[in-house]
From TrEMBL:
Residue ranges of domain 4Fe-4S ferredoxin-type in the record: 247-277
SUPFAM superfamilies named among the record's database cross-references: 4Fe-4S ferredoxins
UniProt keywords, alphabetically: Iron, Iron-sulfur, Metal-binding
Top-level taxon of origin: Bacteria
Protein name per UniProt: 4Fe-4S dicluster domain-containing protein
PROSITE patterns documented for this protein: 4FE4S_FER_1 (PS00198), 4FE4S_FER_2 (PS51379)
């Protein structure tokens, strides 16, 4: 098996946006990456996400999103902890796997899988927080419990407005809570467990989810599940508790995305390529422009979400045809033809959210 080169979290757009001009970290990063400095500085000069001056700003609604992210920021230090001093005698790995999947589902996960962890899943270095900036990632947990929560379809179809952003951050909150409950439980049994949540990941969740059989990564760089498409948020708990790993599953997403191209066509920032995959660190992927994507986020004041809303799997596909399409190109082509005849390029929900106030935008 060929392993991808580890990704450095310092190269992540959010890590770069956290750099403060004039600091040693800022100078060091842009000395090594001078090609990014001008565009990153231009992004930093724009109105912040959720800030006044962006297209979707609403003085009452926008803080619904920001307050949720503040909550996530203030709870993320709970992601790690020491296990109990003595290990509890446990049933078989099969039984513990069943129990943990059931626990994740009880707390709201729609899909759960177990991945055998390997180096390609983890960042090489931390980059999001000043206190850990540049630290090497050292996590050797052999298993990853990965779970997906569904984002509300009608809220996502409001993209790129505040309801979409609220649905997205609720997904982060839900996965953070599920991860906390699983990791606290495992540690109480005397085993190591770490919750990887928004703002405090040591790994790339879609890669773990793909290897756990939850879905495949599509043209837009997001995990596509059979049931919900990319309309999910992911959480991961890594652990040394013995579990039974699931198998990676292929159901035809690379070929489907080659034919579909809806996300590329609807992307307002033209950040998603419409051409073929390229090799990225030895694996075929579509290369997304993080600068073009994030620039649109800053202009809008939300995380956009149009690519999620435009994906046929988010809107809904016949599951029997989805199960067959990986083995039959004609089933796949017919599925896409039927979908294109029924649906416009992307759904737009213009109905007001019933519980939102009618207070003016600003």
């Amino acid at each position: 098996m060929v392993f991808m080169k580890k990704y450095d979290e310092r190269d992540n757009m959010f890590a770069r946006m956290n750099l403060t001009p004039g600091t040693p970290e800022y100078r060091e990063y842009y000395n090594e990456h001078p090609e990014l400095k001008e565009s990153d500085d231009a992004l930093r000069a724009m109105a912040p996400l959720g800030g006044a001056g962006s297209a979707t700003f609403h003085s009452v609604h926008t803080p619904l999103v920001g307050s949720a992210f503040q909550f996530l920021s203030e709870m993320k230090h709970l992601s790690e902890g020491a296990p109990a001093s003595e290990k509890t005698p446990l049933p078989s790995p099969d039984e513990m796997t069943k129990l943990l999947k059931g626990l994740a589902g009880f707390y709201g996960a729609k899909l759960t899988g177990i991945a055998p962890m390997n180096p390609r899943h983890f960042y090489s270095h931390r980059g999001r927080e000043a206190e850990s900036y540049g630290n090497e990632v050292d996590c050797d947990h052999p298993y990853g419990i990965v779970f997906a929560v569904e984002m509300d379809k009608e809220m996502i179809f409001h993209a790129p407005d505040v309801p979409e952003a609220l649905a997205a951050v609720k997904g982060y909150v839900d996965t953070a809570v599920i991860g906390m409950m699983i990791s606290y439980y495992i540690r109480s049994l005397g085993y190591q467990a770490r919750n990887h949540m928004d703002g405090n990941y040591l790994l790339i969740a879609p890669l773990v989810a793909e290897d756990a059989g939850l879905g495949e990564i599509g043209r837009h760089g997001l995990l596509i599940t059979k049931e919900y498409g990319p309309r999910v948020r992911l959480g991961v708990v890594t652990t040394d508790l013995p579990l039974v790993a699931d198998n990676k599953e292929s159901f035809g997403i690379p070929e489907f995305c080659r034919l579909c191209k809806r996300c590329a066509q609807s992307c307002p920032g033209k950040a998603i390529p419409s051409g073929e995959q390229t090799l990225i660190d030895g694996e075929p992927r579509w290369r997304i422009s993080d600068t073009a994507c994030y620039q649109r986020w800053r202009m809008l004041g939300t995380d956009c979400g149009i690519c999620v809303a435009s994906c046929p799997f988010s809107i809904g596909l016949d599951q029997e045809s989805v199960r067959k399409m990986g083995d039959s190109p004609e089933v796949m082509r017919q599925l896409l033809r039927d979908f294109n005849q029924k649906h416009p390029l992307r759904p737009v929900n213009r109905d007001p959210v019933k519980w939102f106030t009618s207070h003016p935008k600003d």
